[in-house]
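Quarterly update from the structural biology core.
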Amino acid sequence: MRVSCKAERGVATKAVLFDLDGTLVDSAADIAEALNRTLEALGHARVSEATVRGWIGEGTRHLLATALRHAGDARDPDAVLAPFMAHYRQCLLRSPVLYPGVAEALALLRGRGLPLAVCTNKPEAMVAPLLEHLGIAGFFAAIVGGDTLPRRKPDPAPLLHLAGRFGVAPRECLMVGDSATDRDAAQAAGMPVVLVRYGYPRGLDLERAGALAVLDDLRQLPALL
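Predicted structure, tokenized:
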């Protein structure tokens, strides 16, 4: 396994914030199915899971706007938000899987006494059931979803909110994600960021993204701290 690392020594970290989809959980198949059911109800053709993977990461409204534009549909994404959410609730626990090493890494970090949080653009109501289903809910002291605050990633507000909740400076937190959305939010917050190679990078050049490290497996993370 590779670790591309710019830090010459361990990073002083007092809290770790994790993106969800593409970092801890591979949920693309379920998101794609919910989106395709929504498109079919509108009379549009289904799209491939691979295509949807490239659209994930900037929140539900962005996902719907991209899908409607792809289908040549001029509807406002807010007009199809309710039916999409109904389909997603049905698909949420259909086939999500943890990426290899996630549970072990979380256990190691918790064993060090580090507070952990989820910082995602997924609607907050969808986060806890997913974490419970996958058996990792107990690792996290806080959750911020895409609709928890008025602003979401790549705005730094969710990361700054979590740093404040834990009572630590942003520079003492570490953001772990898989995309430019996570990188940009962390940089705007003045927070170090680590990226993973296996998620939904959406064209981001991970090696040139300015991350402290780029990991193949989350079990490599504790050694950096």
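Residues 3-27+96-224 form a domain with the Rossmann fold fold (CATH 3.40.50.1000).
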